[in-house]
Amino acid sequence: MTGLPETVGLPGGPAALPFQAVPGQVDIEFASRASVRLRLANAVLRRILRPALHAVCVLGESAPLRGDRAFRIANKVDVLAAPLRPARGTRREMVRFADFRAEWLWHRDDPGPDETEHGVILYFHGGGFVAGGLHSHRRHAARIGHTAGLPVLNVDYRQLPIGHITDSVDDALTAYRYLLERGRAAESIVFAGDSAGGGLAFMAVLAARARELALPAAVVAMAPFADLDPAVRNAHPNDRSDSMLSARALSIPAMIGFARDGVLDPAWSPVNHDFTGLPPVLLQVSDIEVLLPDSEELARRCAEAGVPHTLQIWNNAIHVFQAGADLLPDARAAVAEIGSFIRRVLAARAAEHADRTTAA
């Protein structure tokens, strides 16, 4: 049975209790051995998908496809994912903004987008800032929402070549303001995302803090792409063990798409920020994937700032394995962990609000 039985606090001592933080201590939970299905999926993808993605990367770095042409081709991936459907009982409603679009997703048994007294998940999809969108992540985001018992606003933010990462952050904040203006309390909103969307979730909460907006209740990130600088990943041993991505693949949108005259602004990467005042954080990542150091550094930033957090490291998992919950027991367990975390943190926020109201 897949689970997270082993909890470790680093550099030492017992792990912090939920929503408490021991200054300087990174709180890590290790999953038990990967299921047979997950190990098989890992082996198959390593032999098929990684070589294919490597070939695409070579094309994306070379003329005549280098840069914008390659990014436009990658943008088409979301269209190919159109046949994916959310689980039966899922409701959908499109929301159009000036520069991007989003989609409400909620299960018929859960509160809908107009029931603003309940919580909500603001979701940012992955795809390396060049691929993915509403189609590719609709089923995955809807599953997380239903597991938490909440509606999800799935955001199709601008990506390369149309939008720079600064535009992606602007879109994330626009979506957040939309929820606030519709009567949602900040403490009832959870930012969540995977891969590039996981990094964007952190950038969005940091941008909200910089603009003195009320911060959301929590941040959930699955294998976040949180450091645009490829240096650490290039030197990490997981660059050889990841079954899907390579450090080289992740460097292309950063160094070819975002960099200006070959230079990346450190401010574009959430790992380079102080996390003081951020809400509780849940991180999930695989022990063999190339984005492991990004999650580790985010957890360190949380520890330095005294932010309550948990870094869950899953055994032998593929990148964003949570999206495979239809087939993988490990993925279902991970999504259940996310749902439980969201419910706990929103219950804690609701209790705090009730206490403040009573005291007033």
UniProtKB/TrEMBL annotation:
GO terms for molecular function: triacylglycerol lipase activity. It comes from the Bacteria. Keywords: Hydrolase. The active site is at S195. Residues 121-322 form the Alpha/beta hydrolase fold-3 domain. Signal peptide: none annotated. The keyword Hydrolase applies. Belongs to the 'GDXG' lipolytic enzyme family. PANTHER family: AB HYDROLASE SUPERFAMILY PROTEIN C4A8.06C, ACETYL-HYDROLASE LIPR-RELATED. This is Acetyl esterase/lipase.
